[in-house]
Design brief:
- This protein has 126 residues and is of the alpha+beta class.
- It has a domain of 74 residues.
- The chain has a two-stranded antiparallel sheet.
- The radius of gyration is 22 Å and the shape is elongated.
């Protein structure tokens, strides 16, 4: 879907998700029963469905980041692509260091252009 043309508030009709699952009586059990779950989304908005799906994804991400807790910067940003595992945590300090290192490889003219572009992008975030 092209997010520029998708109305996330559209109401879904005739949309179902079919998923095969396995259910165990408890976490340690070797017994399981296979089932098919069909979830119908009639009447839900695309935004609601995506929001619910994202909640589970975010919980998984939070759990995976626990082992990297000491490397995280409070207030940092994580940019993700749906379905991709987080490969790096880009904190403000890392971004600043990367940009500074990049500037040292440029000529004076290119450095001025890069800094002007960065200021323009920062001003656009307001």
């Amino acid at each position: 879907m092209d997010s520029g043309n998708t109305n996330v508030n559209m109401v879904l009709h005739g949309v179902s998700l079919v998923r095969k699952i396995s259910v165990k009586p408890d976490g340690d059990s070797k017994q399981s029963k296979k089932m098919t779950v069909t979830t119908k989304y009639d009447g839900a908005t695309l935004n609601t469905v995506l929001d619910d799906a994202n909640k589970t994804d975010i919980i998984r991400l939070q759990r995976s980041l626990r082992e990297k807790y000491d490397d995280l910067t409070d207030g940092g940003t994580i940019d993700r692509v749906y379905g991709a595992k987080p490969s790096a945590v880009i904190t403000p300090d890392v971004a600043k260091s990367t940009f500074t290192n990049h500037l040292t490889t440029l000529s004076v003219e290119d450095r001025e252009i890069a800094i002007a572009n960065m200021i323009e992008q920062m001003n656009a975030v307001k």
